[in-house]
Amino acid sequence: HSLKVWNVSGVLALASLFYAMAGLAALKTVDDSRQEVVLYAAAKKVVSLAPHLTEVLFDLGVQDTLVGTSRYSDYPEAAKHIDIIADAFQINVEAVIARQPDLILAWSSGGDSRALLRLEQLGFPVYRNEARKLADIGSTFVRLGTLFDLKDRGLALQTRFSRQLQRVKRQYADHKLKRVYLQISERQLYSINDHHLIGQALQLCHATNIFGKEAMMVAPVSKESVLARKPDVLIISSSQRGFSESLRIWGQFQQFRDKIRYVDSGKLSRPSLRMLDGIKDLCRQIHRSGG
């Protein structure tokens, strides 16, 4: 693949020289690892290595640029028809090289970091994403929009996202404060702390996270620790199938039988525009009557 690798590096070098000579501005942004990402034309062929980043490209309206995605890139429906060339643990490097993308989108805390570094060393521009605050999701629209020469569209999405978050906060500010146990795993008991994006969402819903002060962002918990903290509501963020299992586990405790709620993990766990729907569902389930 040496010829292809030289093609990528050579094109980037020639493009850089051309833009410098022509006095044209390159498309530049800084990713969440604080690395500058520079393109010399709007991205036309993109590989997305995380389902939420696939969704973000659909949010921006540039889904036609996708030439490869990762496993579980299943929303919207059209995403299911794009070639899968990676999963949470492994990247098919040969498949990426064969597609000659001019941009690779990756999730900083997931995926095959060694393979990603190799692709970067071969000359492929890599944008690493890691939203640490809900507001960072809005910033992602702007930064990625810039690389498609669609910064205005990114800014519009950022404004929409920010305004709706504030609207949710205002809507529930006067509601009774609820103590919430939020479970994010279907088979084992895992919860999140206040620093996690979903933990931040709980605060918008005017809820107290019973495991909010835990040191780990995602931590295993026990039935006994949940019982001892006496939550008002139990939220299970999972698939419908996983919820049935959780309902069986917690339904055996009489004090919880009318307090168990379901939120689609696809909406709530992916930092894209759709997370707004997940947050709204979360708040509704926490404050619905009977909980």
From TrEMBL:
The chain crosses the membrane at residues 6-27. GO terms for biological process: cellular response to iron ion. It holds the Pfam family Peripla_BP_2. Keywords: Membrane, Transmembrane, Transmembrane helix. The keyword Membrane applies. InterPro entries: ABC_Transporter_SBP, ABC_transptr_periplasmic_BD. Residues 45-290 form the Fe/B12 periplasmic-binding domain. The keyword Membrane applies. This is Fe/B12 periplasmic-binding domain-containing protein. It comes from marine metagenome. The lineage of its organism: unclassified sequences, metagenomes, ecological metagenomes.
